[in-house]
C-alpha cells in the first residue's frame, strides 16, 4: 500500500515539475479596474436573494416591535427620525459638550453645525466650503458678513454662489437624512400636484438677482451668469421674466447653454396657448440649438417628452414623440427610463398603440440591461407609470409579470420611495386579482404581504369580492387575521367578511367549524371594546348567528341572541328570518323551549310576520311545555 502511494506521489510530482512559467508564454497583466467604495458590498449583495418575508431594515427585527399596518409603519418610521432629530438638536444646542472625536478621520456629519453671525471668523475659503456642501442659507449669511466687512470675494466664487442660490431659490435643499419625512410630505403634496404645476415660487428681486448684478458688473462671465439666472427662474416658475431675459440675450449676443434650452423646452407649455403653438415653439427652440451649435443631451430629450406629455390630448402628439425619439437616436442619444415614462403617458389614451409601445420598451430593456441603470432623477417614474398603464388601461397580466421580473432583476431602488412602492403593488395586486384564480393569487399575496406591501382598504374590499366570486372560502380565516393585523376592522369590511363566512359554511359544510371560529373571534374582538366607531347591524348579527349554529355552537348562539334581544333598539335593521328560524330549530332540537320562545318574542316585538310560522314549530314539535311556557304561547297566539 505504501509503495503504491509513493509511486503515485512521484508521478504527480513529476508531472507538476514538467510545467514551467516559460511554457505558458508572455504573462499579460490586466488593466486596473477602478472600483467604487461600495463595489464589495454590491458583490456580496448579489450573492444573497431578496427575502420578501423579512421586514424593512428601518424597522427592528423583532416580531413584537414590527409594524404591520400602514398607520403604524408611518408612525414608527417618523418617530425614529424624530428621535434622530431630537438628538441632533441636543448636539447642536449644547455643542460645547460634544468636543470629543467619535471617528478618525473626522466625519463632518458627526460634528455640530457651525452657526454664523456678525462675530464669526469667516473668509472666502469658508464660503467655498459651504458652497461645496450646498448649505444655501449659510452661504447667504457668510457672503453678507464678508460684504459688510468689505472683504473682497472673487468673481468666480460669486458665479458659484449665483448658480447655487438660483438652483435652490435661496432655500436650503431637503436633507437626505430625513427620507421618511420627505416622502410622506411628497405623498401629501402629490394630491395638489395639479394646482402646483407652473406655480411661481421664484423670489423676485431677491438675493440671487443681486448676486447676478454683481457678477455682471464685476466683469464676470456674462454668458454663465445669464444662464444660471435664467435656469433658476424657469425652474421655479418665473417663466415670463425668464423669456424676456432670453430675448435680451439673443439681441445682445449672449450665448445660452444646453441647460437653459432644456428648462425652456420643459416650460414651453406655459409660453403658448394652443397645443399646436407649443409644438411649434419646441421645434423653433431645437432649430435654434442646431443653428447655435449647441449639442442636445439626454436632458433635452426628456424635456421635450415632458412637454409633449402635457399636451398628450393633441392628435399629433404621439406622432411627434416618435419622431423626436428617432431624431435623438440618430444623434446618438439613447432614451432613459424617464424618457419611456413620459412616452407611456403620451400613449396612455390610445390603448391599441400603448400595448405595442410597452412591449417594445420591455423588449429593449430585456435585451439591453445596461439601459436600466439610472441616469436622471426622473428614472424612478418608469416602473410605477408602466404598471399603472398595464394594470388600469391594458389589463395585461403577461406584460405586468415581465415588468415585475425586470424590476427585481435590476436596481430595485428604481421603484422610488415607499409611497411609490405601495402604489406600484396596489396596481399589480388589483390586476392579478382580476386575472388569476384565487388560490394562485393568494400564493402571491403570502409572498409580499405584509412586509413589502400592506393592502389598502379598497384592495381588501376587492379581495373579498374575488373570494366571493371564486368561492375561495378557505381563505376567510386569513382575511380576518389580516384585518386585525393591518388595523382595518371597519364596519363595511367586517359585514362583508361575515357574509362570506355564512356563504362558506353553507356551501361547504366541512368548513363550518372553521367559519364559526372566525365569527366568534370577530365577536370577541368587537365586544372587547378595542375597536372604535363600529356599528352593529341586524344583518351582521344574523350572519354570526347562522355561522355559529352551523358550527354546532348553541351555547355561543344563546349569547348572540341575547345581545340581539337586548340591543334591538340600538341596532340598525333586523337579522334575516332564516337566521332566526335556524336558531329556533336548534333550540327545539336541544329541547330548549325557553330559548325558542325568547326568539319568537323578539320577532313579535319587531312586528315580523313570520312569528306565526316560528310559533307553529314549537306547538308542533311534540315537546311538553310547562305552565309559564304555555301562557307565553297562548299570549302570542292571541295576536294572530
From TrEMBL:
MF terms in GO: ribosomal small subunit binding; rRNA binding
Cell compartment(s), UniProt: Mitochondrion
Entry superkingdom: Eukaryota
This protein's UniProt keywords: Mitochondrion, Repeat, Ribonucleoprotein, Ribosomal protein, RNA-binding, rRNA-binding, Transit peptide, Translation regulation
Cellular component aspect of the GO annotation: mitochondrion; ribonucleoprotein complex; ribosome
Record-linked Pfam families: PPR_3, Rib_mS39_PPR
GO BP, sorted A to Z: mitochondrial translation; regulation of translation
Chief location: mitochondrion
rRNA-binding is among the record's keywords: yes
Assigned protein family: Belongs to the mitochondrion-specific ribosomal protein mS39 family.
PANTHER family from the UniProt entry: PENTATRICOPEPTIDE REPEAT DOMAIN-CONTAINING PROTEIN 3, SMALL RIBOSOMAL SUBUNIT PROTEIN MS39
UniProt protein name: Small ribosomal subunit protein mS39
Amino acid at each position: 500500500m505504501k509503495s503504491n502511494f509513493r509511486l503515485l506521489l512521484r508521478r504527480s510530482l513529476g508531472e507538476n515539475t514538467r510545467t514551467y512559467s516559460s511554457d505558458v508564454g508572455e504573462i499579460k497583466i490586466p488593466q486596473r479596474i477602478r472600483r467604487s467604495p461600495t463595489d464589495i458590498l454590491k458583490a456580496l449583495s448579489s450573492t444573497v436573494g431578496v427575502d420578501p418575508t423579512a421586514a424593512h431594515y428601518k424597522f427592528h427585527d423583532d416580531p413584537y416591535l414590527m409594524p404591520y399596518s400602514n398607520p403604524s409603519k408611518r408612525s414608527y418610521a417618523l418617530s425614529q427620525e424624530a428621535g434622530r432629530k431630537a438628538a441632533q438638536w441636543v448636539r447642536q444646542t449644547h455643542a460645547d459638550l460634544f468636543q470629543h472625536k467619535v471617528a478618525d478621520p473626522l466625519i463632518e456629519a458627526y460634528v455640530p453645525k457651525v452657526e454664523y453671525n456678525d462675530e464669526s471668523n469667516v473668509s472666502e475659503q469658508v464660503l467655498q466650503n459651504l458652497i461645496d456642501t450646498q448649505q444655501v442659507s449659510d452661504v447667504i449669511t457668510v457672503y453678507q458678513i464678508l460684504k459688510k466687512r468689505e472683504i473682497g470675494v472673487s468673481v468666480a466664487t460669486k458665479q458659484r454662489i449665483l448658480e447655487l442660490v438660483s438652483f435652490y431659490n435661496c432655500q436650503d435643499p431637503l436633507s437626505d437624512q430625513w427620507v421618511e419625512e420627505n416622502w410622506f410630505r411628497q405623498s401629501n403634496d402629490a394630491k395638489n400636484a395639479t394646482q402646483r404645476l407652473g406655480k411661481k415660487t421664484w423670489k423676485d428681486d431677491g438675493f440671487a438677482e443681486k448676486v447676478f448684478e454683481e457678477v455682471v458688473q464685476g466683469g464676470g462671465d456674462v454668458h454663465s451668469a445669464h444662464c444660471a439666472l435664467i435656469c433658476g427662474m424657469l425652474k421655479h416658475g418665473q417663466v415670463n421674466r425668464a423669456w424676456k431675459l432670453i430675448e435680451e440675450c439673443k439681441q445682445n449676443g449672449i450665448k445660452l447653454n444646453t441647460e437653459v434650452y432644456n428648462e425652456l423646452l420643459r416650460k414651453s407649455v406655459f409660453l403658448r396657448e394652443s397645443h399646436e403653438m407649443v409644438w411649434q415653439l419646441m421645434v423653433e427652440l431645437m432649430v435654434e440649438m442646431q443653428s447655435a451649435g449647441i449639442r442636445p443631451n439626454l436632458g433635452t430629450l426628456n424635456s421635450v417628452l415632458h412637454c409633449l406629455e402635457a399636451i398628450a390630448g393633441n392628435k399629433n402628439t404621439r406622432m411627434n414623440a416618435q419622431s423626436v425619439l428617432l431624431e435623438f437616436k440618430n444623434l446618438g442619444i439613447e432614451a432613459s427610463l424617464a424618457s419611456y415614462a413620459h412616452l407611456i403617458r403620451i400613449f396612455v389614451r390610445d390603448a391599441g398603440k400603448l400595448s405595442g409601445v410597452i412591449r417594445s420598451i420591455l423588449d429593449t430593456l430585456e435585451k439591453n440591461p445596461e439601459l436600466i441603470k439610472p441616469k436622471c432623477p426622473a428614472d424612478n417614474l418608469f416602473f410605477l407609470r408602466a404598471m399603472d398603464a398595464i394594470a388600469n388601461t391594458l389589463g395585461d397580466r403577461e406584460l405586468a409579470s415581465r415588468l415585475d421580473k425586470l424590476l427585481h432583476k435590476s436596481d430595485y431602488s428604481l421603484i422610488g420611495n415607499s409611497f411609490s412602492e405601495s402604489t406600484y403593488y396596489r396596481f399589480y395586486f388589483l390586476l392579478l386579482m382580476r386575472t388569476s384564480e384565487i388560490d394562485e393569487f393568494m400564493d402571491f399575496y403570502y409572498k409580499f404581504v405584509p412586509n413589502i406591501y400592506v393592502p389598502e382598504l379598497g384592495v381588501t374590499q376587492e379581495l373579498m369580492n374575488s373570494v366571493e366570486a371564486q368561492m375561495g372560502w378557505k381563505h376567510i380565516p386569513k382575511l380576518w387575521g389580516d384585518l386585525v393585523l393591518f388595523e382595518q376592522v371597519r364596519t363595511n369590511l367586517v359585514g362583508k367578511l361575515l357574509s362570506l363566512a355564512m356563504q362558506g359554511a353553507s356551501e361547504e359544510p366541512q368548513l363550518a367549524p372553521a367559519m364559526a371560529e372566525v365569527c366568534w373571534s370577530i365577536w370577541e374582538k368587537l365586544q372587547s371594546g378595542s375597536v372604535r366607531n363600529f356599528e352593529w347591524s341586524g344583518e351582521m348579527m344574523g350572519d354570526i348567528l347562522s355561522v355559529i349554529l352551523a358550527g354546532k355552537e348553541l351555547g355561543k348562539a344563546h349569547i348572540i341572541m341575547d345581545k340581539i334581544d337586548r340591543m334591538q333598539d340600538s341596532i340598525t335593521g333586523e337579522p334575516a328570518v332564516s337566521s332566526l328560524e335556524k336558531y329556533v330549530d336548534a333550540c327545539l332540537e336541544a329541547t330548549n323551549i325557553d330559548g325558542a320562545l325568547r326568539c319568537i318574542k323578539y320577532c313579535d316585538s319587531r312586528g315580523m310576520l313570520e312569528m306565526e310560522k316560528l310559533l307553529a314549530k314549537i306547538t308542533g314539535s311534540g315537546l311538553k311545555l310547562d305552565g309559564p311556557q304555555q301562557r307565553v304561547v297562548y299570549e302570542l297566539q292571541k295576536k294572530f
